[in-house]
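[audit] Reproducing an earlier prediction to check determinism. Same input, same settings, fresh worker. If the tokens differ from the archived copy the diff job will pick it up downstream; this log only records the rerun itself.
[audit] input (382 residues):
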Amino acid sequence: MSLPLPDSDALAASHALQQEIATAIETAGGAIPFSRFMELALYAPRLGYYSGGASKLGASGDFTTAPELTPLFGQALARAAAAIIAQSAPNIIEFGAGTGKLARDVLTALSEEGVHVDSYTIIELSGELRARQQEALKDFPQVAWRDGFPENFSGVVLANEVLDAMPVELVLKTADGWRRQMVTVEDGRFTYVQARLNADLAAQLARQIPEADALPQGYLTELHPVACGFMGSLASMFQGGKGAAILIDYGFPAHEYYVDQRSGGTLMCHYRHHSHPEPFFLPGLQDITAHVDFTAMALAAQDAGLPVLAYTNQAGFLLACGIGDLLLRTDPNDAVRYLPQSKAVHKLVAPSEMGELFKVLVVGHEVELPDAIVRADRSSRL
């Protein structure tokens, strides 16, 4: 791969993390599940990609998310949030708040519409991003940070590109059945070895991929037990409360996920705006993600008692929230201001851009969504 070289400090941090992972492998008896490797690569204290200090978002980082493109994204979400708050409570939780721009745009839009928010809680694992958020949101006294789920909650939950960064299990179909991809060290390099599925993973496979037996030998894919656990935790948090969680990410329903053209899985790495499939490249300096199985997320929520309220693509959701009307608040004759916003909206909703690949799953208790979102619902396709 021809990728930009890191500076000496970043390279030293990656080498330190590689040694920490190698020690974990040795302690475990010679191999760890890929999910554990991914967890350490992303979240090891001080050295993991999200827990370290490297810039992640924007031109100087590794990727750009929807809130960074235009404030219209947050303004559209604010419309959905306002409808949910009106039926529940004036509280918002955002998981993985990036630079804080989405929080700022949502709070600003709600304030302009006369919707008061008592509390906006951010749950953020990245120390570098939390520091950026605290600077960006210093003028919003209702914003606070915490490290984990509250016991109970009423209001709105936002999670934009959160599920895709949760550790996944890699499983490979062999002549002897499905095997778990484990990570070991061989000749000083990380590599894979296979192990039998334990009972929990076998059950996850059966639940997530009902047609697993029909897939060909050599098929590699992901299982999502951590993300499914997250959906269960959302359900527990909403027990006894009212509200909804809006989860936005790239991915597919199961019948589109486990198909022949994805026989190598969906795992992808992001390094300085370059995408590639090598998770062992410079651990700690690159993002590692997998596409979301939205059927598995919906089932995990429902199994835990949190109903699915809607599922659609990002284009359908944003258009239902009135992003087109929001764009037209800028005079089209004012080309300097209008054209950049129009270009950003096109990227968000065009099928060839983010409009179809990104999906929106809404789960919740005792609230109804606006009619326009209900009309865009595709949950029958899950």
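[audit] rerun output stored. Observation attached for the diff report: Residues 172 and 220 are 4 Å apart (CA to CA).
[audit] end
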